Amino acid sequence: MSAAPYVVATTTPPEIVCPEWCTVSKDEHIADLRNQEGFVIHASDTAEVVCVMAVMTPDGMPDPDGEATVEYDGRGLAIAQARELAAALLKAADTLERTTTLRGP
Questions:
Q1: Which residue among 36, 38, 89, 95 sits deepest, i.e. has the most Cβ atoms within 10 Å of its Cβ?
Q2: What is the pLDDT at residue 100?
Q3: Quick check: 36 pLDDT over 60?
Q4: Is the dihedral of CA 71, 73, 78, 83 positive or negative?
C-alpha cells in the first residue's frame, strides 16, 4: 500500500463505495480504515476456494500502488496469472475428460 491519499479527522464516517462483489460490510471497512492507512480492502467471499481482493480509497478509486488480486490456495495472483492458471486448469480438465471418456463408464 502507498501512503494514505489523505488524512481526515472527523466524527462523521466516510461514505464507502464497494464493488458489487465485496462481502465486507461498510461498518467493517470504516473500523479498519486506520489499520489500512486510510485505504479499504474489498474482498469477495473468502470462504470460497477462489476470492477477489482489491485495495481502494473509500470513494472506490484503486490504490495506484496496489493491485487487485485473485486469492487462490493462499496466494495472491495478478489478473494475468489468474488467467494463466484458469487456462491451465481448463486444459488439464479437458485432457482428463478425453482420457476418461475413451474408457467409457
A1: 38
A2: 78
A3: yes
A4: negative
Residue whose C-alpha is closest to residue 57's, from 43, 34, 37, 39: 39
- pLDDT band for 12, please (50, 70, 90 cuts): confident
CA distance 14 to 56: 13
Q: Which three cell numbers stand for residue 62?
A: 484503486
- Residues 58 and 15: beta-carbon distance below 8 Å: yes
For the record, the C-alpha cell of 105 comes out as 463408464
Contacts of 13 (CB under 8 A, 6+ apart): 30
How far is residue 49 from each of residues 3, 56, 64, 69, 79, measured CA to CA in Å?
A: 31, 23, 27, 14, 16
* The three grid cell numbers given for residue 29, joined into one nine-digit string: 471497512
Q: How far apart are CA 39 and CA 30, in angstroms?
A: 10
Q: How many CB atoms lie within 10 A of CB 71?
A: 18
Q: Is 22 exposed, middle or buried (0-12, 13-18, 19+ CB in 10 A)?
A: buried
